[in-house]
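#structure-requests
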Amino acid sequence: MSGSDGNDIARRITALSCPADADIRGAMEAINRGALGVAILCEGPGGRLRGLVTDGDIRRALLAGKGLNSPAADIANRLPLTARTDDPPEKTAALLSERSRFIPVLDAEGRVRDLAYYDKRSHLPVADAAFGQEEVANVMECVLTGWVSSAGKFVTEFERSFAAFCGVPHAVAVCNGTCALHLALVALGLGPGDEVIVPSLSFIASANSVAYTGATPVFADSEPGTWNIDPEQIERLITPRTRAIMPVHLYGHPADMTAIMAIARRRGLAVIEDAAEAHGARWEGRRVGAIGDLGCFSFYGNKIVTTGEGGMVVTERQDLAERMRMLRDHGMSPQRRYWHPVLGYNYRLTNLQAALGVAQMGRIDATLARKREVGAAYASALRGIPGLSWVAAGASSWPVYWLNSILVDPAEFGMDRDALMSRLRELGIETRPVFPVLHRQPIYDRAERLPVAEGISARGLSLPSAANLTPAEVVRVAEAVARARK
């Protein structure tokens, strides 16, 4: 924590502090406010240090029979290790360990001016897959029974549970999210001469899946607030060759599906939702992926639901579901084995992968709740840092914060996006740049300007966003960002 923005430090110390004569209840309230597991006992606001009380101290005291009205000073560490405000950071850091997790940083009068703390997870990744005993048990069942390929009960169970989760009757499992997009486009009959409008600010699979069919991706600019495809841009880009719109729910934030569906129905266009990053997000109460004609999801290792690799297409339409089931299995007729009336693909998901998916779906609601808690924690912790902004979620949107991403204004923040990423990397905090715009990728480079998407792409980065990120780790990231301004 040492070295962060002065106002932020003062607020944090105030939150963590309680009077030296406080009772255990008062110390608990300070611990709850500060979200670091420690309370600082001081001689009044901004006064001298008189001890530290941790959540462990309180737990042991209560188990020993002390009441909430007992003096906190009785259970405090009254002589904790301390550092001075003029000490070099490396000297303070050397004092930290598993046994000395909190080091108050004092001024010459003994008043707490900062707090250094030990974080045993030194590296914070952008994303982190979470597996439990149910995943292990399901995979072991596949191995022990021999059902490890694309046949097996977990594939159909995964499809049923995911369809029910999205609120649609049909879900077709495939080997990855890109295949899901391609399969959806092929099922709709898209091909050479057709155009599909896609946002330029997206992962390249959105455009590549269109190109695989022989159709042409047409790139649209983004909305400044949501970073998603701008419906007004869609209207301007429609030509006689336009067949479909592919909105992307970027980083777990739903695109404006009301406007997009109105355009599509008025102009006779199909809508394929790229919901690879938005499992469970809602627009006007409906799950994304279930609003358009087809919705496509990814289960890559960093996604909210993961099967390592894997994907799913969901739809209300039985005809499209039946066609995709045939196409994913080499175009084989469902009535006659090894008979292939159409050109198909080997896009099948394995039972092993689906076994992971079934277990993941068993706790999807808890995972989404944690993702939203992490998103809210970042919004609170980053608020007030000059030069930062982030995605705006409207009243119709229920985002799932797959990644928590920010924009850096170099003039106001004091450094550009890449310099901030470098500084955070030195502190063990992984970040990722926002996707490069597709219309500037070498294979699609076109002489066009999409200023909103280009600006977001140049200034945006994603912070650690795993569902198991703790409140203290969110604070650690936010304070590292604030410190970088200096």
